Amino acid sequence: MKHLNAGLAFAAALSLLSTAAPASAEPLKNIVLVHGAWVDGSGWKPVYEILTKEGFRVTMVQEPETSFADDVTATKRILDLQDGPTLLVGHSYGGSIITEAGVHPNVVGLVYVAAHAPDVGEDESALGKKTPSVLGKTEGIIKVTPDKFTYLDPVQFPKLFAPDLPRERAEFVARSQIPAATQVFSTPLTAAAWKTKPSWGIVAGNDQIINPDLERWYYERAKSQTTVIPGASHSVYESRPKEVAAVITRAARSIQQPVTR
Fold first, then answer.
1. Nearest CA to 97 among 123, 122, 68?
2. Quick one: average pLDDT of 79-101?
3. 104-115: per-residue pLDDT in tens?
4. 17: which strand partners?
5. Rounded to the nearest 5 degrees, what angle is found at the Cα of 110, between the Cα atoms of 105 and 116?
6. Which residues form the signal peptide (predicted)?
């Protein structure tokens, strides 16, 4: 009888352990990439190709750059189309966008690529003036159209924005700029997703558009896992795609997505 009781107790313990076992998980699959000011989503192509080969479902947002609200709305529209948990990635001004749009319920993590990451009530223009970049210290580079849209002097663009891209590519990007409304840089944020969601940050060591020290400050404040890419320009997402994709991949694989059966 003692042997029988012991056997029953052992079986009951196994059953309890089985019931209490955590649900299985699989790596996150959805990644949304958000470009910065004056450029478009095509610059993400090298990163996109690496990530898709790794098995991720990657989507680029094409912001109109007509207002900060419009750009956040464009990002949320793409997030609405995702079929589950999503890693949201932003470059440059795109960092402000993902900070605001990242409160979307599908977003489970943020990656900042040489990007701004303001807090609620802050805007990147004011923060940039406190820690100016080479661009911020140089007059005449940012041009303004009569209807208040900005763009970078196409002649100066290659050496400031993309000095580590092939010259022909940098000149093409300079001549295919999307003018950005002046207000996109000075609109205060109403949400800061990095306060409640895990984040990763990439510092471009030779960034002349955003001061690398400002990038470090943003990421330290957000408690982001930070990677410095020495010598990289503001175009780090296009000039150093393997290193950028590696950070995004590491972030995505560190976020486990519960499997529902």
1. 68
2. 98
3. 999 999 999 999
4. none
5. 120
6. 1-25
